[in-house]
Design a protein that fits this description.
With about 190 residues, the protein is mainly alpha-helical. The protein is built from 8 helices and no strands. The termini are far apart.
Length: about 190
Amino acid sequence: MTPTHLPGRVAVPHQQRGTTLERFNTACADELRHTLLTCLRSLRWAHRITAHRPYPTPEALLAASDEAAYDLTPADLTEALAGETLPVLPEDAYSAAHTALDAANAAYEAKFGHVFVICLDEVPPNECLDHVLTAIRSRLTNDPEEERVVAWEELRRLARGRLLDSLRGAGNCATSHNAPALGTQQDTPPT
């Protein structure tokens, strides 16, 4: 690229460092797995995504993510669910909403033995609270096997959204985990 010279300004040529997908494809495997674990806390999923690089397009990466999520065993699902946290309420949510969500989460965890997970990627922010409360109450009527399938699908959708965020360089792979973007270091690895 030819630098443009403007009066009174210093021209600095633009340096291409590669696309985000190129950086994803060439990142150190250990560092990449570490970052992928912020998107979905499954070692099998992270290893599989890392091992099948390079991905020719972001769509191919997302398809591989979906396939790897569908191939998780029940033990992998348990591992991934153990790494999740509850959806965070907006700061301006009224205290009755916190009480209702706390009670619903407690009932959910008592029945299913893991935290409630839900992907809110396509829900407008002002509707998240109602959506979460409606979904948790509805899903409390599921039997454990039925809910395991629903939770599995929600984890797949969460992983996909977090992976997209990391490819966009958002710096935060998750809605409830603060994590660096792909290719950056984090002080402590996920457990």
